[in-house]
Structure formats: C-alpha cells, structure tokens
C-alpha cells in the first residue's frame, strides 16, 4: 500500500464520516491492510489526519493555480472559478469533519484554517484588488470589507445548521453566495460570464 493511496482514502472517509468518528481500525479494514502498515507512514491518527488534510489542500491548490494562471480569464472569472473548485470539495464535507478538526486535531485544523485564510487573502483579495484597478469593480467598494463579509466564511455559511450542499446544487450556491455578491460591486457595464 502506497502512502498516497492511504491518504486519499483516509481523507474521503474523514470528510464524509468525520475525522473523529472514522477509526484507524475501519481504515485498515477497508484498505485490507494491518494497522501496522498505517503506522509505518504515520506516528498516530492525528498525524494521519493532518497529512491527509494537507494532501487534499495541495491537490486543491494545484487546481486553483491552474485557473489563477489562466490568461483567458479576467480577475472576477478567476474568483468565481476558485469558489467553484472549492465548492466541489466542500460539497462532500460533513459538518462533523470541520468540527472534529477544531475539537480533536489541532495540527490538521491549523493547516485547514491557514489555507482558508491564505486562500482568501492571497488569491481572492488580490484578484478583487486587480479587478478594481482594471475598472471592473466600482471605486467606492472597500475590497477588504467585501472579502471579509462575503468570501472569507463561505464554508461556515454553508455548514450552519445543515449542509446547504445537501439542499442546493453547487451551481445554485455559487450563484447566490458568490456571483450575486460580485454583481453588487461591479461597474454597470460589466457582465459576469463563467
């Protein structure tokens, strides 16, 4: 069993069942390996959870970077694609996954929260600044405030009391949470296409 295959299976199960609820015994059984094989790669479950979250986020970052580097998209289209990609990941998360990270796996939670913060700050924020400089976003819009209000806590909104991804399609959530927010800050003659 290769480490990557173990990480990919683990993160699927952690995100859909919950990182605390899904045990190493279950992981070993599903993969038809011994727990000793798991411990060959990881010191303990916390190490496995942290590395599996890191692996998932590196995969997401690769997909995001492809869109950010796409010269055929303007800054707002890139923002939309960023969230579209992230929503594809978030739609498979059970709220217990994120809660479990916060409660039981500090190392993994730190990795996840750092990605969320840096994702908004490094990518979305600067793309919105770029859009404003290119006269796509109105001059009177405070980009820092917009990124904090509308974009920074999207995953928290989608996981309030229920997972909104269970009720609405990814495209409907993208349209209502992201695209409609962007429509409110763009100049009159800009048409959002994605």
Blueprint of the fold:
Layout (H helix, E strand, L loop, with lengths): L2 H15 L6 H8 L3 H7 L3 H24 L6 H16 L4 H10 L1 H28 L9 H9 L2 H5 L11 H14 L11
Helix pairs in contact: 1-4, 1-6, 4-5, 4-7, 5-7, 5-10, 6-7, 7-8
Any overview of this molecule?
The mean pLDDT is 89. The protein has a single domain, classed as Tetracycline Repressor, domain 2 (Orthogonal Bundle). The protein has helices at 3-17, 24-31, 35-41, 45-68, 75-90, 95-104, 106-133, 143-151, 154-158, 170-183. The chain is mainly alpha-helical and 194 residues long. The chain is elongated.
What attributes does this structure have?
194 residues, mainly alpha, Tetracycline Repressor, domain 2
Low-confidence spans: pLDDT under 50, at least 5 residues? none
The domain tally reads 1
In one word, what is the shape? elongated
CATH class descriptor name: Mainly Alpha
Structural class: mainly alpha
Q: Would you list the SSEs in sequence order as H and E?
A: HHHHHHHHHH
Instruction: State Rg.
Output: 19 Å
CATH architecture label: Orthogonal Bundle
Query: What is the number of strand segments?
Result: 0
Strand residue percentage? under 5%
Number of helices: 10
The percent range for helix content is over 70%
The average pLDDT is: 89
Report the major sheet.
none
Say what the CATH topology is. Answer: Tetracycline Repressor, domain 2
- Head-to-tail CA distance between termini: 40 Å
Q: For this structure, what is the CATH homologous superfamily?
A: Tetracycline Repressor, domain 2
